[in-house]
Amino acid sequence: MQKTLTTNATHTELKAMAIATIDEQTNRIVELSREIQRNPEVGFREHGTAQRLVEQLEHMGLDYRTGLARTGVKARMRGRSDRFTVAILGELDSVITPDHPLADPDTGAAHACGHHIEIAAMIGAALGLQAVMEHLDGDVVLFGVPAEELIDVDWRLSLRDAGELEFVCGKPELIRLGEFDDIDLGMITHPGTSGQESLFEMDHSWLGAILKKVRFHGLTAHAGENPHEGINALKALTLAMTAIDSQQETYRDEDSIRVSQLVVNSGDMVSTIPGTTDLEVMIRGRSVEAMQDASAKIDRSMHAGAIAVGARVEIDTVVGCFPFAQDEPLVEVVDANARTLFGDSEIDSHAGAHGASTDSGDLQMLMPMVLPIVRSGCDGLIHSKDYQIDDHVLTAVNNAKLLASSVIDLLCDGAANAASVIDRSGPKLTRDEYLTIRRSMETKKTFG
Fold it and tell me: Cβ atoms within 10 A of the Cβ of 390, count?
């Protein structure tokens, strides 16, 4: 039986109480992680996952709101004062990996990115924090957020065109809706890839991502009888791809520009000059300015391919997410707690740059954000058919302890640490400023 805390309990006593509570709830946390892992759902369609989160919140006696950006779920735990609010986030969605052993046979969805441990860790941290909230000088928001992965884009664009959403990823859409206006700091965790020496990595950065849907319009003709009367949309696409490759030396190394391409439609049949072809292009970069520069160069390349053969090209540009460079003052808080919990040798404090992307970068433009990665308990390469979470204690339960301990440090003693982190993290964008930048980069252009 746990002891009762005094009114002036120290942060060490509060953490001990929270961690003891999490330990008592280990089986519940692990089972939630496994249940979500067995029932994957892709972004903006995570209705079952959202319901599982709702059941946990109801069991904790918390009020909540649902249906945020289609499937998001948000609850608030109140402290003894509301000076600041810290959000613990968990991503609801999966990726599509049809050959994964736990893939949904109908949709191909699979938790080959490990988001299920985020939801379990969030609930685990909440269970620990619920035992000490009356001693904290701030609130904690639990936020199940949809659609972190930039997939299923055609369907999401159909939702945009129907007016059901504006942005194709979950956190940007929730920002637009004002759902982060009442939050001051954010925390989220993520599993990593196996084969790493340390248990956790900190202070890494992620690239931003832009997606272009490109369609070339030519003129069909018989490929043998009268090809000279056609306009070959496939040739336009091929020339455009060559122009894209020719841009590579114009990118600065420090901007980490990565351009990937996929021919979605190359024509209807080999005996006909293709009249319509489709290309998808993804641009990743380490700064908004670098992404904007690369986007303009890709548009020029598309235009060049069309001009060369007399075709027309339509380019629909959507922003997936912005670059993510974590806020060092908040990293310091989480890093210190990780070292206390797991030992110095288990923490890689300066993990460096990642080549992947996350829409937590959008949120970091508005508030201090941190994203520790747990490396142990994972097996296989992330996003592959072999990726599995083998140890839900090392991943979900350990993360719950780290998140809860870090929140306590931020919100105890008058929330002095939260105030310091916000001040030292420097100026952030307002929601309107953020939306202006994002909307300026989402364009529809036609050339030819």
Answer: 12
167 and 308, same domain (yes or no): no
Residues 6+ apart with CB under 8 A from 446: 312, 313, 314, 315
Give Cα 392 to chain centroid, integer Å.
21
Half-sphere exposure of 66 (CA within 13 A, CB side): 15
Strands 258-265 and 276-285: antiparallel
Query: What are the pLDDT digits (tens) for 57-111?
Result: 999 999 999 999 999 999 999 999 999 999 999 999 999 999 999 999 999 999 9
Read out DSSP for 259-295?
EEEEEEE--S-TTEE-SEEEEEEEEEESSHHHHHHHH
Containing structural domain, residue 190: 11-203+326-434
Please check whether residue 297 is in contact with residue 250, taking contact to mean a CB–CB distance below 8 angstroms: yes
Q: Is residue 6 part of a domain?
A: no
Q: Residues 6 or more apart from 55 whose CB is under 8 A from it?
A: none
Residue 86 three-state SS: strand
Whether 239 and 345 map to the same domain: the answer is no
**pLDDT tens for each residue of 254-284:** 999 999 999 999 999 999 999 999 999 999 9
Distances 421 to 26, 63, 192, 332 between C-alpha atoms, Å: 31, 28, 26, 9
* Number of continuous H segments (helices) and E segments (strands) in the chain: 14, 23
Give the integer Cα–Cα distance in Å for 376 and 197.
8
The whole-angstrom separation of Cα 106 and Cα 241 is: 34
Kindly report the CATH number assigned to the domain that includes residue 382.
3.40.630.10
Mean of pLDDT values over 297-314: 98
Residue 100 CB burial class (10 angstroms; 0-12, 13-18, ≥19): buried
pLDDT on residue 134: 96
Mean pLDDT for the stretch of residues 279-291: 97
DSSP3 helix / strand / coil % (the chain, rounded to 5): 40, 25, 35
Overall domain count for the chain = 2
- Find tokens 């391919």 and name the residue: 305
- Sequence-distant (≥ 6) Cβ neighbours of residue 150 within 8 angstroms: 168, 169, 209, 211, 282, 320, 321, 357
Query: Is residue 46's pLDDT more than 60?
Result: yes
DSSP character for 406? H
